[in-house]
Amino acid sequence: MLVLLFLAPLTAGAVSPPTGALRGLGINVVKTSHVQENGANSVVLLGETVRDGVNYTVLVTITEYPVKTSEDLMAVEIGDVPTPGISIAPSMDETLQNSGESENGEDISFLLGYSFYKTAFYPETLDGEPVGENITVDFRTGLRSFYSHEFPFGDLRISIQISGEYINFQRNFDSFLSTTCHLNENNQTECQTEFMWDEYDSYLSSMLAMKAYAYSQASSLGKSVKNTVLASLKAQPYPAKLLSDFQLCIPGSGCAKLSPGYLGTLTFNETDIENGARLMFTTAVFDRNSDVSGIQAYYIDPSGQYGGEAIKLHSAQEFYTYMGTPKNSTVAYAWMNGSSTTIPVVLDVAIKPGQLKEGKVRVVFTVSDGSGGDSKEISWDFVFEGNFTDYSLKVLTPKDGAHLKQVIDGLFSLPLYAEVRGSGAEDLYAIVTLPDGSYERLPVEDNEILDVLYMSDPAVKEGALTVSLYGKVNGEEKLLAKRSVHVTLASVEVPGDEIDNDMDGLVDCEDPDIATCDACILQKKLEWAESLMERHIAYINKMIETTPSMKSVYDLYIEHLRELHEQYKDDPDRMVKEMNAYMEEKVYRNQEINRYISIFADDPEKRYQLRQIAEKYRYDPIQRRIAMRRFIYENSQTEAEREATMNAILTGILEPPKWLVGGQYGSGGALDWANFVASNFETVGDTVKLKGTETVKMLRTPANIFIVAQDARALMKQAEELKKMNLPESTKVAIIVLDGAAKIGKLLDRSGYFGNMADATLGSLINLRKKIEERNQGWFTWNGYVLHETAKPGIYEDYETGKKFKRVSGGWFSDPVFVEVKENG
């Protein structure tokens, strides 16, 4: 009979906030945060919306629990896990409605109530002084509701809280007082005040009547939020993983719980060799979004490998019937019903008569889906019972499931301490196999194995540390005992230590796992602020090249920027604000004046007159701008030029963003630019439109290309045309986009400060088109649907339902809005 010996004890994707999905419901998400508490990570979203005369505050908390076993999943399912304890429940003095229900791990509750207090007023006053005693009134107002729904979704507990404030029932006490006053014969002001009971009773009755449908209002919103959150979560990638609660059943010997890793020694006798054996290994796969594509299980012993792809069984009856059927060969099978997040898997091993041999045996389970996969292994040594010794081995350090410590980036230390018990063998030693497959031979001294080992393979993130005890029995060297513990090399990424703690190739804040923590947000803001400073300094250095005589002044500007950097290192937002204000005052304002003066580059007298205007209004920038524009208009050489200049001023292109300086405004070229603008554009209300049906206008000079595009799509189309011209990729391109300029600019100018395309080149514009094309080749989510553009442009299809949608608004870089349409629109 097979006997289990030395069994090891049982051991052991970040959620993205559904911000866009909630906004699709009309909820304005005002705050998103992350909470780490009690070993669980939570995403918290706070939003606001107004519906049916109610100001609703919506709080969504999604808590991800580290599940390793089916028991962990069950704890999440029934709510037997710690919660962050965040609440937006309003205070209520009196409750009108208090209801709740709990079923299948879901808890729903609803409260409706209002504020109650006693207040008083004086019915009569004389010149503002009370006459007689006051009257006390019981006053009720401030109707509020609170809806709470907590439910499980795989390894997540989701809490939806909705606090409602009913707009029409927030009146204060004074609004129910009516006061009339008159002068008496002594010329004193007499006032009589009364509480409008009829109006208050009507108000109170209306408030009480809300009991009839307040719950249905809040519940309807709650269900919409729940469906939207679940749709968003299901669309997020989540790699399937194998749970750690394995079980081995041997007919006639019973069942034992196992953990991944080395189990110990399994003995067999002559009867087992003669009759063969049946071993049933069971485990479970967990996959939050239920998209498992493959499950394999293998039994590997000295005679070969058996098993393979698991047979998919789709009902409980089919699964358990198949389990009870005798089998002549090793087979794997799984119960997959299509929607369950947990999939039971069985590897049914049939060891044929005469097949049992001494040696190492492995059982391997693997699972895969569209987001990745997982693999776990169990191993043991088969030993004929006549060769078995009574040696035991106990690994005290490291503990099973321990996280190893990184000494420096990529180098891990592994302190080992194990105790040896037994007798009957000599010349004892241990072979220690590390998770990366390397091994070392260590001595056994005073019944102890003690050493510190090191490994540095960055490809290995976890695995088994195996200690094999060898010795001579009757002059023959034998394996006496073997123990394994599971260790993890990767740990949670820590910002600032310059170590890749979780060994994913990304260090510190470059790792998206911690990119949103406070320390990393501050670091990214500082990097952005420092890049802005470098942009400012680069701009000043260009000015030094242009006017070397001003170098001493410009050097002071640079020095002051560096002082601001040191002063506000801990407050990057303030640093940016102070630097921008300083550059505006010292540099960019003068550039505006020089830009206007350069229009008359060939007329020294007009340049002098413009400088006098600038000096006259040096303390009034608005009036200075008006006066200089008027002078430019009045002193243009011809009526046609005056008309072109005025049109350019009206469209706002003669006074463009700060980046559009030099080139087209130097050497008297501004009027050429103004004529280009005036002949191709017109103002319509508060907007600027292209004349005719064209969507792009282009002006070329020997050194630059100037493009004015109606919108992003037109710009991208023009990029394709420019690509065909085979111009050098370094050719400068100045761009104005009439709709969505800032968003296009942010892609071409990563600092975001200039907000447009100052430093664009032909190459960067073509690459931007390529990035946008690549981005739009895949699926994307909208309002809980997973959409992809069909063969018909503008028509999108939902992955799950097959519904068709048409985009009705939203640009390439703004939130899209779709409407459902019939087949192909």
**Cα-atom radius of gyration:** 38 Å
* Shape, per Cα inertia axes: extended
**Unreliable runs:** 1-13, 648-671, 740-758
By secondary-structure content and strand pairing, the structural class works out as alpha+beta
The major beta sheet can be summarized as: 7 strands, antiparallel
Major sheet: arrangement of strands: 2-3-4-10-9-6-5
User: Mean of residue pLDDT?
Assistant: 78
Distance between the termini: 70 Å
Number of helical elements? 16
Quote the beta fraction. Answer: 35-45%
Number of strands: 43
| Helix fraction bin | 25-40%
Describe this structure in words.
This protein is of the alpha+beta class and 825 residues long. 27% of the residues lie in helices and 38% in strands.
Layout of helices and strands:
Blueprint: E1 3-5, H1 19-24, E2 28-37, E3 40-51, E4 54-64, H2 70-78, E5 94-103, E6 106-121, E7 124-126, E8 129-131, E9 135-153, E10 156-166, E11 177-183, E12 189-195, H3 197-209, H4 214-235, E13 241-242, E14 246-250, E15 254-258, E16 261-268, H5 270-275, E17 277-286, E18 292-301, E19 304-309, E20 311-313, H6 316-323, E21 331-335, E22 342-351, E23 359-369, E24 372-384, E25 392-397, E26 402-403, E27 405-408, E28 411-421, E29 426-433, E30 439-443, E31 448-455, E32 462-473, E33 476-488, H7 518-546, H8 551-567, H9 572-598, H10 604-616, H11 621-634, H12 639-651, H13 670-680, E34 681-684, E35 687-690, E36 696-700, E37 704-709, H14 712-724, E38 732-737, H15 741-748, H16 762-775, E39 780-782, E40 785-789, E41 795-798, E42 804-809, E43 817-821
Parallel strand pairs: 16-24, 20-21, 26-33, 37-38
Antiparallel strand pairs: 1-16, 2-3, 3-4, 4-10, 5-6, 6-9, 7-8, 7-12, 9-10, 11-12, 13-17, 14-15, 14-17, 17-22, 18-19, 18-23, 21-22, 23-24, 25-28, 27-28, 28-31, 29-30, 29-32, 32-33, 34-35, 36-37, 39-40, 40-41, 41-42, 42-43
Helix pairs in contact: 7-8, 7-9, 8-9, 9-10, 10-11, 11-12, 12-13, 14-16
